[in-house]
Amino acid sequence: MGIFSFFSKEKKETLDKGLQKTKENVFSKLTRAVVGKSKVDDEVLDNLEEALITSDVGVDTTLRIIERIQQRVARDKYVGTDELNRVLRDEICALLAENSGGDVEGFSIEGRQGPYVIMVVGVNGVGKTTTIGKLAYQFKEAGKKVYLGAADTFRAAAVEQLVVWGERVGVPVIKQNMGADPASVAYDTLASAKANGADVVIIDTAGRLHNKINLMNELTKIKNVMKKVVPDAPHEVLLVLDGSTGQNAFEQAKQFTKATQVTSLAITKLDGTAKGGVVIGISDQFKIPVKYIGLGEGMTDLQLFNREEFVDSLFGGI
């Protein structure tokens, strides 16, 4: 059982509120898709396809969903438009389950010898450092000793922001001078964390989508140096994406998955956008589990992704 797995009533309320803009967007489009129709026919499916694509689910994922609904309609013989909402929820939930390999839980750090190392990647401005701060807060609240590493040494603002989060949460931040070797910062962070009995280490990396080869080399070097301190590090490579950018998030995921082995995703800023459908598409296209979603600025507004609750919030009441 991973950490942060419990889903409370308060979290559900935050999720419902955070996805409200996306829900209203999807609701209006689905309503138009079935208007004047009593059963799910080809015209309804065509309208549904357009509704999903324009809700940033993505073309390929939309086609998979439509195919699944066609099979369901053929199997069940008659599916009325009043049943479409339930069928859509069922099929999207099933799709998310397939892509995550089962139930998605938090990071499994219990019973380990030495620190659990999370390397966080993503472009500047997606909420990467904020996500690190919120994760650190949640780990600390769970009784874990946390260290942060400021390995984004190319931007003074990135280091300063991480230090601010460290102070807010009450966890140490290991840093060096601007322009220092990021791998050196990662090494120092792990060495200090290991020497002081830390449970979790979170390493921030440079958020630059520059030349892919340079990005790949930089991330590979950081990973190799960390292994000198903790041989099986990093245990998780978390890619942070800004959900409000819609299709741009797909491109960022494409670039980073080519540059390094991404093991999980955090999709942020869903509370301020109508593009929450991007969560479904990215999970499907990259076959990487979405582990966290960001639904606000508060310390507790980073939630473990629960696919059933997510889909229920997205389509509940439609």
- Helical region count? 12
Percent of residues in β-strands: 5-15%
- Secondary structure: helix percent: 40-55%
Mean pLDDT: 86
Structural category is: alpha/beta
Distance between the first and last residues' Cα: 33 Å
Q: Biggest sheet, open or closed, and with what strands and sense?
A: 8 strands, mixed
Please tally the β strands and state the result. Answer: 8
Query: C-alpha Rg, in Å?
Result: 21 Å
Note poorly predicted spans.
Answer: none
Helix-strand sequence: HHHHHEHEHEHEHEHEHEEH
The general outline is elongated
Q: How are the strands ordered across the major sheet?
A: 3-2-4-1-5-6-7-8
Main location: membrane
Organism: Candidatus Aphodosoma intestinipullorum
Membrane topology: Peripheral membrane protein
GO biological process, one term: SRP-dependent cotranslational protein targeting to membrane
Summarize the structure.
With 318 residues, this protein is an alpha/beta fold. It is built from 12 helices and 8 strands.
Written account of the structure:
The protein is 52% helix and 12% strand. It is built from 12 helices and 8 strands. The protein has an 8-stranded mixed beta sheet with strand order 3-2-4-1-5-6-7-8, sandwiched between helices. The protein is elongated. The two termini are 33 Å apart. The model has no long low-confidence stretch (mean pLDDT 86).
